[in-house]
Specification:
Distance between the termini: 41 Å
Bound molecules: zinc ion
Largest sheet: 2 strands, antiparallel
Radius of gyration: 23 Å
Number of strands: 4
Strand content: 5-15%
Length: 287
């Protein structure tokens, strides 16, 4: 949703780095012998990614011969990638990719883990493939769970593959009622394919982004309420609007679909808000 540059490390190079520190000699031989299988799985993943058909992949083609899924995950990922020096270097590099440590799935949380885009136990051959490992916050990792997309429309956006941030797609409007509350929603720009719109809406719902952004927007309004009241008293609603529009502009220049800029823009566009609807102590708005 908030794109990241795709990792350049291949599936095989990552896998070998993760298993080469295995201490048990027999297990190490078994793991290294699976290199071709892992490489082929990585190629299948990349082909499906190019075709927009990740949802159509069959976990049966991503097993590793001679090892259970649990063992592959334990030996290659949990031990190899998380706990050996060479594997950990890859893990740390993937984790460090998002600017400001922001989760690319929600654009708000702090990165805490690597999420397996295709679940690791169903797709063990991809458990240390960098293209399948997305840095994520704990909430997004939990919300996504071990689920597999059921079809094209329910495939979450993939930060390495779906590079949509050059288009404005996040919108908000001030909802009726008091105190002021913002409704966030996906507003696809002209030219988006229907499937991308559906996927973005699914992503938005899956990670509960409307709620997450509304909470953050509410905090912002609380933080600036006193300042807005003083501006309204001193210069009227046009002063308030100009301030909000300026704040929107600088934030949107930094992140076109960040909730911060979208919040300020929605507030600047709302006449009742600029006229004093933010002020909880006044029963009527300013003229
Ligand atoms: Zn997140």
């Amino acid at each position: 949703m908030w794109p990241l540059d795709p990792p350049t490390l291949s599936a095989r190079d990552s896998y070998e780095a993760c298993v080469r520190g295995t201490r048990d000699p027999q297990r190490k031989v078994l793991l290294l012998a699976a290199g071709d299988r892992v490489e082929a799985a990585g190629e299948r993943l990349r082909l499906a990614a190019r075709q927009g058909r990740l949802y159509a992949l069959d976990g049966a083609e991503f097993t590793v011969p001679g090892m259970s899924s649990d063992n592959v995950v334990r030996w290659a990922y949990e031990n190899g990638m998380v706990n050996t020096r060479d594997g950990r270097a890859i893990y740390d590099r993937l984790m460090a990719a998002p600017a400001d440590e922001r989760c690319p799935l929600c654009g708000q949380g702090v990165v805490r883990t690597l999420d397996h885009f295709l679940p690791k136990r169903m797709f063990p051959a991809l458990c240390v493939d960098p293209l399948n490992l997305v840095p994520a916050c704990a909430d997004c990792n939990h919300a996504k769970g071990e689920g597999l997309p059921s079809g094209a429309k329910t495939t979450p956006l993939h930060p390495y593959l779906d590079r949509i941030d050059q288009d404005p797609w996040l919108e908000a409007r001030v909802a009726d009622g008091s105190p002021v509350r913002l409704d966030f929603f996906v507003s696809p720009p002209p030219g988006w394919e229907q499937i991308l719109t559906e996927r973005t809406r699914h992503h938005f719902a899956l990670f509960q982004l409307a709620r997450l952004f509304a909470i953050q927007a509410n905090r912002t309004i609380n933080n600036i309420r006193q300042q807005l009241t003083a501006m309204l008293d001193a210069g009227g609603k046009d002063t308030v609007r100009a301030y909000l529009a300026d704040e929107a502009e600088t934030r949107l220049a930094h992140r076109l679909n960040g909730w911060e800029g979208v919040t300020y823009r929605a507030l600047a566009r709302d006449d009742a808000f600029c006229s004093g609807a933010f002020d909880l102590t006044r029963p009527t708005v300013h003229p």
